[in-house]
Amino acid sequence: MTPGPRPRDRCAQNIPAPQGRSRPLRPKRVTVIGAGIAGLAAAAILAEHGVKVTVIEKNDHLGGRVSAWPVGDDRTMSRGFHAFFRQYYNLRDLLSRADPELHRLQPVDDYPLLHRRGSTDTFASIPRTPPFNLLGFVWQSPTFPLRRLLDVDIPAAVELIDVEFPATYRRYDGESAADFLDRLRFPDEARHLALEVFARSFFADPQDFSAGELIAMFHTYFAGSAEGLLFDVPVDDYDTALWAPLAEYLTEIGVQIRTGETVTSFESTSSGWMASTDGQEVHSDAVVLAADPARARELLKVSRDSLVRTAPAAQGWLENIDSLTNAPAFAVLRLWLGAPVADHRPEFLGTSGYDVLDNVSVLERFEEGAKQWAQSHNGSVLELHAYALDIDADPSEGDRASIVTRLLSDLHQVYPETAHLPIVDQELLIEADCALTDTRPWDERPEAATPIPGLVVAGDYVRCDLPVALMERATTTGYMAANHLLASWRVEGTALWSPPTRGLLRRGALGLLRRGARSLSRRHR
Question: All domains of the chain, ordered by start, with CATH?
Fold first, then answer.
């Protein structure tokens, strides 16, 4: 397989592929449970190396938490906006299989971050390369008045650029993002817009979110990568632009994709593995468990006895998996409006300090299907996203109605003209199936490899020693899961790319400044 576009960042790191023969000596079959990004990534790598792959997905559409589906009248619904950052090297590599030049992704010119108090940060004119991006952001940002920078805790600020992964993840075992932000003492609005936004993009409250993950994302998106802070978005809904073309590619190389089918259990047998799906049996040599974290825990619990018989050492691993928790519920409200929003509204707006609203997308600005609907109805298609809601995972009708009311109230404050625009139709989605990246020790989180021979796991909740997260971690762990199985059969795998694993203070000439920073840090303790 020809690799996808190479990183722009000269400090991006290439992790060589495991070496071996090009294909297995004997036919191998793998069952992939889940057709989200992680499952599709694993399926691609395995099939490209001659493995017979069956992907089983409970939904009738692909993409997992980055999926889209029709809701009638040429309208589509999704699970919410996702930004395809240029640092997502492995995800872009996966997508390039069906779109070699990535023409189905288009750049967003800017994504303003608006605080309820009125301050706005933008990223369009900031240099892409560290440390100039940091300096440029601080210089132009209204949330960083120079007089307030005197209040910042210098040792804590140094920690943002004095990183080395995976050691940095372990350094913050037990510390929450909120605790770290308290130590940092950034100006309040800067804390919300520049850092807390990262925690909420994981669908988590900063009190529950890992400080190590927060710092990793600040490094990846801001302080440690020369790819810049802007991102791309698909030119149409996720299914049309991304997953349908990728599914066609996978089918062409022999992958069988079975949607609308639920795996109820799986177990190790004398000849390999057997997955039970609605009364049918699927036999294979190995299993990639790429379901969402709650579903993965459920399946492992149902299959526990068989797994422990196969590998008694798996008992502790299974208990550790069972202790994982999900992030709070999130909501996506899509509105089809009978008149357009103001022309100057950005494609995507991040918000902070509002009741529940975290971002707004004007979909006709980049999605072809939404554009066609907006043109034919002289209207707009908006998507509102709310993270970390304080409601049950299975909300009542009253809770659902309340979320709609609160989101609309926030929207009318952010875009006042929308208070007078008729709502032609609306769709509300509330889910609570995202993993919570909490403050537990890094080494207690599951890796792609498991103590059970022939079973690997993949997903954005799976531990990855590289500074990647969300869609990129899902892809990367899918690749790693496939590589692990291939290596067990002495077959070559695929190389991985990563943003730099070292921060500015640990690189080249800037590394010379590290001793001075440490000395300064000691004087401030």
Answer: 13-65+89-103+236-324+439-494 (3.50.50.60), 113-229+502-524 (no CATH), 328-431 (3.90.660.10)
